[in-house]
Amino acid sequence: MTGSEIPATAAWRKSTYSGSGNDACVEITTSVPGVVGVRDSVDPGGPVLGFAPSAWRAFTARIKDGELAL
What we know:
Blueprint: E1 13-14, E2 26-29, E3 36-40, E4 49-51, H1 53-64
Antiparallel strand pairs: 1-2, 2-3, 3-4
């Protein structure tokens, strides 16, 4: 998956794990079927990463389980 599959008009939302005033925030979009787009909220015009939904779910599950230190 690539971020190039995400249209400029996609609806983005900030991660619920990003606190207010935190400069280290990510935004995601699920506007395109089969792709979860991820970008830096501080640089919305910057690069976008694209993940298969199953890969994104596995990644976020590992974070929630404490397997990955952020």
